[in-house]
Amino acid sequence: MRPLLRATTLPFTLGCAALLASGCATTHDRLPEARYTMTEHQTLPLAERVRITYEGADDSRCPENARCIWPGRLSYRFTLRIGSVAQAFYLVPGQPGYMPPALRGSRIELDHLTPPPPRRLAGAPASGPMAYPVTFNVYAQ
Questions:
Q1: Distance between CA 86 and CA 107 in Å, rounded?
Q2: Which pLDDT value is given to residue 17?
Q3: Could you point out which of 4, 10, 68, 109 has its C-alpha 20 to 30 Å from the C-alpha of 39?
Q4: CB atoms inside a 10 Å sphere around CB 28
């Protein structure tokens, strides 16, 4: 006779099955609380089997000296790898952070004390791609 799963472990177990058992985190993989600053295309280890890659920024904000119908939006693209499973997500200023289901309560949020990069000026010559460093915090719950 098979033992029954406890009700508290069932949602996590089903979530892990959806993320592939080989890459699913355990309670030991909860992220430590920390503050990180990254540059585009940089990868950092967050825990033993957990890595994060900052893929880059998407900036559709209205230029500083222009009139726009829509103010635009700045978003930062990330890939979180837990073992062999990769999960893409965005962080957007003023929006809630990201809670990876497999990391049981850890939350990744943009650092609200770090200002976003300045907007470009309309008509200014592009002197190359803008750099978009990002600072975020990891909170364990």
A1: 17
A2: 41
A3: 68
A4: 9
